[in-house]
Q: What sequence folds into this?
């Protein structure tokens, strides 16, 4: 993926093209006199951003979205890692259940929105359920693969050295599956983030997706564009500063080479 | 216990002989337990219908001609969007991968636009294009484009520089290097990108159909939700899952495996 931004120069090299893009945007909007209802100017967007920060609505929407993601993801990880390990330990069980989980991880996320809103009503429950779903199946499937990929001799060796079930779990199975688990979490969160935005447009009255969709009703393109920038920046921060380093650290620590 | 063991050994023997059975049996078990839970009426029937009702609604929707139409709409949208996204994405990726200058100028921009995500574009697209085909096509092209571009760039950059030099010193022109070194070298990554892109595009299509709402499987599900018909929602989900499994398992995975093997990479 992207080179890691380490030195300040690399940081500047990363930001400079984005800066040029903003200048280009400002120039085009001014030069062609684009109708602000079609596409807003840079200053309008900045003003909309400042307004939403000042009246606290940005913080409210972003906090609601992030809270949903955090709760859904945390619940999903708590449920899926033990399940995945339990399934992966036995080849018979895993070969039986793997097709099911493959099928459901295909459905993960957005396809659950209609039924989630019917079961839980509009609001926090339905959206958290969608996020839970997006993460749960992907992480379970990946954990299963991870545990199944631990060489059997390793498990035999640990057992013959007298490892109890608990020691086996914490020192062989979980560490062995960790790279896969982390990859699963990253993929699952990618789906969950998209699912979140979609679900918020459909089924709630607070959150970043709702902020965008509400602005659409009033043709406030500057709020929409500002919201898109916020969504992009939040995901970049989440992915680059939390998930990618985590994944890289696990994979390097385990001495694997990224395929 | 012994009967269970005997059953299990029977199952194990059959599935090693016919691997297809192994993929089907878990679903039979799932459907059976679904039917039992539904019949026992733990949940209200309206919220949790059984498999028979879903099959019946499948029959009636096919009979009315709604389902085939919607299915066709969804598949055509995805195919058109994916074709356009690939046609744009591969040349763009090749260019970015071959030119370091273009790479350093555009890579951050690409990453940023990828992070915005397809669905966040929907509100402004609705203002631009209204509720219609253009909006949905844009969303799918956008979604497919980024995984294809990013993976193509990775693929091109993973071609060892020695191969370039060898081809150059043998007198290959730029066009031939592109066609005989770069494209084949990047192909496994391109295929992976296409597979990821279609996976995301599929989900984006569902979201777009729910929100834009004119026709398609996503619309079928959301329309059923408005009418409170869980049966049709479940039907929609099953069709989505089946369709994607078929596309992924019978088209994309074999292509990916074939390229991977042909290129001497390990097929995972």
A:
């Amino acid at each position: 993926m992207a080179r890691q931004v380490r030195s300040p120069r690399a940081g500047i090299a990363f930001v400079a093209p984005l800066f040029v893009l903003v200048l280009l945007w400002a120039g085009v909007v001014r030069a062609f006199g684009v109708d602000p209802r079609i596409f807003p100017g840079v200053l309008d967007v900045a003003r909309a951003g400042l307004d939403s920060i000042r009246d606290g609505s940005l913080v409210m929407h972003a906090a609601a979205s992030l809270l949903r993601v955090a709760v859904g993801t945390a619940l999903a990880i708590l449920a899926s890692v033990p399940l995945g390990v339990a399934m992966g330990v036995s080849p018979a069980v895993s070969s039986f259940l793997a097709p099911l989980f493959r099928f459901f991880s295909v459905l993960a996320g957005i396809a659950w929105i209609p039924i989630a809103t019917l079961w839980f009503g509009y609001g926090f429950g339905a959206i958290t359920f969608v996020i839970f779903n997006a993460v749960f199946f992907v992480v379970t499937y990946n954990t299963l693969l991870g545990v199944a990929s631990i060489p059997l001799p390793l498990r035999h060796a640990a057992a013959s050295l007298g490892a109890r079930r608990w020691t086996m779990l914490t020192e062989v199975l979980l560490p062995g599956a960790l790279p896969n688990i982390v990859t699963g979490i990253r993929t699952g969160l990618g789906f969950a983030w998209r699912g979140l935005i979609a679900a918020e447009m459909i089924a709630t009255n607070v959150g970043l997706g709702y902020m965008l969709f509400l602005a659409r009703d009033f043709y406030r393109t500057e709020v929409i564009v500002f919201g898109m920038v916020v969504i992009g920046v939040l995901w970049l921060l989440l992915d680059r500063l939390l998930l990618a380093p985590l994944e890289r650290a696990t994979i390097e620590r385990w001495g694997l080479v990224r395929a | 216990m012994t009967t269970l063991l005997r059953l299990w050994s029977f199952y194990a023997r059959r599935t090693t002989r016919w691997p297809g059975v192994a993929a089907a049996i878990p679903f039979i078990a799932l459907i059976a337990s679904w039917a039992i839970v539904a019949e026992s009426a733990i949940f209200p029937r309206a919220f949790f219908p059984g498999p028979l009702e879903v099959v019946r609604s499948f029959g009636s929707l096919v009979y009315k001609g709604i389902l085939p139409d919607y299915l066709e709409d969804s598949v055509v949208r995805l195919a058109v969007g994916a074709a356009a996204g690939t046609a744009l994405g591969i040349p763009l990726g090749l260019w970015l991968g071959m030119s370091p200058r273009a790479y350093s100028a555009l890579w951050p921009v690409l990453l940023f636009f990828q992070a915005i995500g397809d669905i966040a574009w929907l509100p402004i697209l609705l203002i631009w294009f209204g509720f219609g085909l253009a909006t949905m096509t844009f969303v799918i092209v956008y979604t497919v484009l980024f995984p294809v571009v990013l993976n193509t760039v990775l693929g091109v950059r993973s071609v060892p520089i020695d191969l370039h030099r060898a081809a150059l010193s043998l007198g290959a022109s730029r066009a031939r290097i592109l066609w005989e070194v770069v494209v084949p070298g990047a192909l496994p990554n391109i295929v992976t990108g296409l597979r990821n892109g279609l996976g995301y595009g599929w989900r984006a299509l569902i979201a777009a159909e729910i929100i834009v709402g004119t026709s398609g499987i996503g619309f079928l599900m959301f329309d059923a939700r408005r009418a409170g018909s869980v049966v049709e929602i479940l039907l929609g989900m099953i069709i989505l899952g089946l369709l994607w499994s078929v596309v992924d398992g019978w088209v994309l995975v074999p292509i990916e495996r074939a390229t991977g093997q042909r290129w001497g990479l390990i097929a995972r």
User: Anything to note?
Assistant: Chain A has one domain: 41-253. The two ends of chain A are 12 Å apart (CA to CA).
